[in-house]
Specification:
By secondary structure, this protein is α+β, with helices and mostly antiparallel strands. The chain is 30% helix and 24% strand. The chain has 12 helices and 22 strands. It has helices at 133-141, 147-160, 167-175, 186-193, 259-271, 309-326, 379-390, 405-419, 427-447, 451-458, 461-474, 476-481; strands at residues 2-6, 9-14, 17-21, 25-30, 35-40, 55-60, 64-71, 76-83, 89-97, 101-103, 106-109, 111-119, 129-131, 234-238, 243-247, 250-253, 280-283, 289-292, 347-349, 358-361, 364-368, 375-377. The strands form 6 sheets. It has a 7-stranded antiparallel beta sheet. Helix 7 packs across helix 8 (405-419) and helix 7 (379-390) crosses helix 9 (427-447).
Length: 486
């Protein structure tokens, strides 16, 4: 068994199949659909590191198998995500975690919630991107990690960021991708080991999973969605354009003409390690699209409680993760995106990154919803609209505006630094163009008879955007100067 532990307490316990065990490393397999013990709160919701109160409850592993290489005495593990059944490689994971310690019940470690991910490819060179860096910094700043954990994790990240990282190990794991061994369940694993962690008893272990268990991969990410219990709530949400109805752990919303293309994109994002988005579940009898429900709050405005460096950094890291996972997505020539393709088409833009499309938990951005405006474009095009909303780069007449131009510039710079080096002060000059494109789109839609956009224009939305364009241009130098501050 693979145990993640905090002190002497079990944080998670996963049944594994040992494919190889040598003096250098252990290669494990975790089977899709396996039941494992995971940390939950009193309401049955999955938890992330940072709490000292939790209970363990069964949860199903994702729809993917994973081969997991744990080198001895190292502060990371290498994971290869595989399609269950076909063993086709999906993506690579580098999990930064405590060095493995062999115990009578298996292996002890602790996932430190910092990863590097890369799409699986046929060649040795990979494009690694950091995942959950903002969450790691938050935990580090709160004193959750020890100095030793911090020092070794940072050193491991620096060591492994090269594109040729662990080339030989990856080649060996690809050769072993078809190896399965018998699927492990908790009871069998405990019987094989002849021991359990001291804080657990046999009655705590879940029964073996049924071979016909239908695993809902929508629950794969512990921070985004509720636990395995079925939800019976029925709620209605009214957005700027659509009415969305929630039924338990899915939502039904009007499907745009681009819905099939957006569903392909959403599946691609999840297959390539980005779980901060809904997963598509098809269409209902009325033609509405069905998407998984992301648990959390979706704020209409940035309240003072959300005007924090932590929220800003997590939103930026989330957008970076979305963009990186979309690099290998291949749009089709006939995909009917509602926004035109913007060159250079480096990534898939969300198209409407703002607080009202952000899922928030504990003051941190954990997901984005409403991908209706998704389209191919440059990274900076998407970042420009995000900083317009989050900095915000808005004039004093805009009711959502706050802060002086200097403060707004600093928040824009903080967002871009958290996003990565690809975007800098030049984003300030892109914001007016991005807003003008939005104005043109709204007017075009209104001219075609779209009542929602006709109402938005009548309510003065385009007037506000035009005023904000003038504001950003008038304060351009001041806003850009913030990017050169220490």
């Amino acid at each position: 068994m693979l145990r993640h532990s905090i002190g002497e307490r079990t944080w998670a316990l996963v049944p594994v199949t040992v494919l190889r065990d040598t003096a250098e490393a252990t290669l494990l397999r975790i089977s899709a659909g396996s039941l494992y013990l995971a940390p939950h709160d009193d309401h049955g919701r999955l938890l992330r590191l940072g709490t000292d109160r939790w209970t363990l409850a069964p949860r199903a592993w994702t729809t993917h198998d994973i081969h997991y290489l744990l080198p001895r005495d190292r502060w990371f593990a290498l994971g290869l995500l595989l399609h269950a059944g076909t063993a086709e490689a999906v993506s690579w994971y580098l999990n930064f975690q405590n060095p493995p310690v062999h115990r009578p019940w298996g292996i002890d470690t602790l996932d430190l919630e910092l990863d590097m991910v890369a799409p699986a490819g046929r060649h040795g060179q990979l494009r690694w991107s950091l995942k959950d860096a903002a969450r790691f910094r938050y935990l580090a700043g709160s004193g959750f990690f020890s100095k030793e954990q911090m020092r070794h994790t940072v050193a491991a990240v620096r060591e492994l960021r090269g594109s040729g990282t662990l080339r030989d190990e990856r080649a060996d794991m690809l050769r072993s991708a078809g190896r399965h061994g018998p699927p492990a369940d908790m009871a069998t694993a405990a019987a094989f080991c002849g021991a359990l962690p001291p804080d657990l008893a046999l009655r705590d272990l879940p029964a073996p999973a049924s071979p016909h268990l239908k695993v809902r991969s929508a629950t794969a990410d512990p921070v985004l969605l509720r636990g395995e219990q079925r939800m019976t709530e029925q709620q209605e949400f009214r957005g700027g354009v659509n009415v969305v109805r929630r039924h338990g752990d899915v939502v039904h919303r009007p499907a745009s003409p681009a819905a099939p293309a957006i569903h392909r994109l959403l599946r691609h994002l999840h297959d390539h390690g980005f779980h901060g988005a809904p997963q598509p579940r098809g269409f209902d009898s009325e033609g509405n699209e069905i998407l998984t429900f992301l648990d959390g709050e979706v704020p209409d405005v940035l309240t003072p409680e959300l005007r924090t460096p932590e929220f800003l950094a997590t939103a930026a890291a989330l957008l970076r993760g979305l963009h990186d996972a979309s690099v290998t997505f291949r749009p089709r020539p006939d995909d009917p995106w509602i926004f035109p393709v913007r060159q250079p088409a480096e990534v898939m833009c969300h198209g409407d990154v703002a607080q009202y499309n952000s899922v928030v938990k504990d003051g941190l951005a954990v997901g984005f919803i409403d991908f209706d405006a998704a389209h191919p474009g440059p990274r900076i095009w998407d970042v420009a609209y995000a900083v317009y909303r989050f900095a915000p780069l808005q004039g004093p007449d805009n009711p959502e505006s706050f802060g002086t131009p200097q403060e707004q510039g600093r928040r824009a710079a903080e967002f871009c630094r958290a996003y990565g080096p690809e975007v800098g002060a030049e984003v300030v000059d892109v914001v007016p163009d991005r807003l003008q494109a939005l104005i043109d789109f709204m007017r075009d839609q209104a001219g075609q008879g779209n009542e929602a956009f006709q109402q938005h224009i009548a309510q003065g939305h385009t007037d506000l955007y035009e005023a904000d364009i003038r504001y950003v241009r008038a304060h351009r130098d001041m806003l850009r100067a913030a990017f050169t501050e220490g």
